[in-house]
# Entry
Amino acid sequence: MYSDMDIEAAIRPFGRFADGISPAGEAALVARARTGDHHAFEILIRRYKDRVLNLARRIVGDADAAQDVAQETFIKAYQKLRRFRGKSRFSTWLYRIAVNEARAYLRAQRRRRARWDKQKALEASKPAHVEPSERAGRLLELLDELPEQQRIALALFYLQELSVSEIAQLVGAPDGTVKAWLSRGRERLRKWARERGLL
# Structure
């Protein structure tokens, strides 16, 4: 059986980069993109495409909608790129746009309750015994059932590997509030995971 800490171990690997671009290299790409270099911006899109899509999926809870949110995120990022001054990491700035786009989607749709009910029914019908790789995937699915603020905080912390202060800056909340969202979200995940035989 998994321990409480294994929730973190199972989720965090979904947020790692493997492209080998250094921070200095990324900064150079951003600088080139700001001057209108389309190729540099395309490289940035490839670097962050999966991470933005994963973040959007965790927030909106729907794969097709996440595609739309991710596409809109990169359109907005391109339109606003000249205003990016480098006061935060490029990734933080980009994730802020993604979170705002995902929130706009949720406000427009108001369908989350139906998705949660459907997800709960699916989870109840699954067998109690699951393999470790399946367990990690189902722990990620449980994120969809968390309240919006906790879901966003956990997705940014584990999947995008932002710090508490970076998340606080991104969502416009105090560090202590973000810590509370993370703590409550983790506790709910642990409770639900135990109830569904994942821990």
Summary: The first helix runs from residue 5 to 11.
